[in-house]
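Form P-L/3: holo structure prediction, ligand zinc ion.
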Amino acid sequence: MKIHIPTPLRTYTGGQETVTVSGTTVNGALEQLTTTYPELKSNLFTADGKLRSFVNVYLNDDDIRYLPEKEAAPTNENDELTIIPSIAGGCCL
Amino acid sequence: MLRLDYAEYEALRAHGEETYPNECCGVLLGKSESGNGNHVSAIVRAGNTRTDSAHNRYNIAPIELVRIQREARGRGLDIVGFYHSHPDHPAQWSPTDFAEAHWLGCSYVITSVEQGKAVLTNSFQLLGTGEDDKQFHDESIEINLAATKAQAQEGNE
Ligand SMILES: [Zn+2]
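OUTPUT (holo model):
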């Protein structure tokens, strides 16, 4: 399956936008990604292994946080994972 | 340096006037040229999900970003930055903007909109290697006027 990498994290994937992995769950896919590109790990996960709060991971069009199985959700070869950091802000504190 | 065409520059400023007194937000698509800043070739308007406090907060729904990134990929472009407006506040990043900025290398464009009229537009590039050392750097904006008439003009407004 394919994992799409956002612009800032491509520094760690040799500039690649799309990385192909063979995991059978979201977790497995992410694990394979960070095994191949170890520098990604601290950008995606906190020290205790949780997905950073501002990092969103979508399995096709679904936020994995809202899937019943969450990170353990099964995946197949035609699925696409998208990693997308959040965008927010505002003026005056 | 952030490079964009005059039409895009005007479009993102007009967006801020349209949503006044609320904040607007959108995405800059283009290419990052190593050592030469971000070159914008299209802007995409996004919705502000912060309807609870839209006059001083913005948030782009992640699913909208997923779709915008997918569209960019189809056009051979990348997300190179974002823009938003500050209704009746300076075109300067705020502590909230900084805390919520996570796209290293990208340009964050802010337009001040005073009484419904776009005034200043500034760009800040988020630099660093991660959350611990990220910082906003003032970035010049080069507007390509070729599409209209005069030659290119460089400035920070
Ligand atoms: Zn702001």
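COMMENT: Chain A touches chain B through 26 residues (CB under 8 Å).
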